[in-house]
Specification:
about 280 residues; alpha/beta; Arc Repressor Mutant, subunit A; Rossmann fold; about 10% strand
């Protein structure tokens, strides 16, 4: 197990081989890794219904010297301020400089821990998929729209789920094992998101998952998992890193496609110019 992996990745890597007690604690942590910030090892163990010894065995199995090492790792990300009766919206930073610094740190820490081979594999899956599917619900929906707006400039047949006004199963029915899915799960994941990703995996499609936090089942379903930090610096969290990650993937894809992407961009520019000229003549 790579010592550079985040605890969420380590839990997913080890999950299938965990004893029952350790798996119960793993389930708790995978549901909400944020619990680590505000709980002791004993409190986490009690909440999972296991002993402190079981918790200690899990932490050592994951490659940590103890709970303090995990806490230090998790605290590297700036947390969202907790809600309270006195300040129900948390401590929103008033300084533009503090906000900017937090966002810059999100970008730096996201790209520092990404594995180059994961990025390369994600780009190749986006390149080789017969059809590309972009999936995003809730607060991920605008990111999915943005991703499609970039991908459609580079290659044809980019499908979108959900597509306004159309039931998801009707759109999804044409997915095959030759396709690639770009799944945006940086925000709160809906049941529709889980359904689409699980069914895509069952159909044999390759899945590139962009997410802020790892959840149970991610490693089983996704071919590549790319994490963009989303915690803080305000009560809304941050989507700066996931959006930047999507932009980077598309830029890498353009380079990987080469001449076909360049030809498509020229064709798009030509159509724009032709239509703009028609509009000028009409005026």
């Amino acid at each position: 197990m790579d010592s550079k992996d985040h605890i969420g990745q380590r839990l997913l890597t080890a999950y299938d081989d965990l004893p029952r007690g350790e798996r119960r604690l793993a389930d708790l942590l995978l549901e909400d890794l944020g619990l680590i910030r505000y709980s002791s090892a004993g409190e986490l163990a009690a909440r999972a219904g296991v002993s402190k010894a079981t918790a200690s065995r899990l932490f050592h199995r994951l490659g940590y010297s103890g709970f303090r090492a995990i806490l230090q790792e998790v605290r590297e990300s700036p947390p969202v301020s907790p809600v309270s009766h006195e300040n129900p919206l948390g401590d929103v930073p008033l300084s533009m400089g503090a906000y900017l610094d937090a966002e810059v740190q999100h970008l730096i820490r996201t790209f520092e821990v990404l594995r180059p081979d994961d990025l390369t594999r994600a780009v190749k899956l986006l390149r080789d998929g017969e059809k590309l599917w972009v999936v995003g619900f809730g607060e991920d929906y605008p990111i999915a729209h943005f991703a499609r707006s970039l991908l459609i400039k580079l290659r044809p047949d980019i499908r979108m789920i959900p597509l306004g006004g159309f039931p998801i199963p009707e759109e999804f029915a044409s997915i095959t094992d030759k396709d690639t899915v770009l799944a945006l799960g940086a925000g709160r994941r809906t049941q529709d998101f889980h359904n689409v990703v699980s069914s895509a995996a069952e159909a044999g499609a390759r899945i590139v998952l962009v997410t802020g936090t790892l959840a149970k089942g991610d490693q089983k379903n996704a071919s590549v998992i790319l994490r963009g930090r989303t915690s803080g610096p305000t009560l809304f969290g941050s989507l700066t890193a996931p959006i930047s990650l999507v932009t980077y993937l598309c830029a890498r894809l353009a380079s990987e496609l080469g001449f076909p992407a360049a030809d498509r961009l020229r064709a798009i520019a030509s159509i724009h110019a032709e239509w703009d000229e028609v509009e000028d003549d009409d005026a």
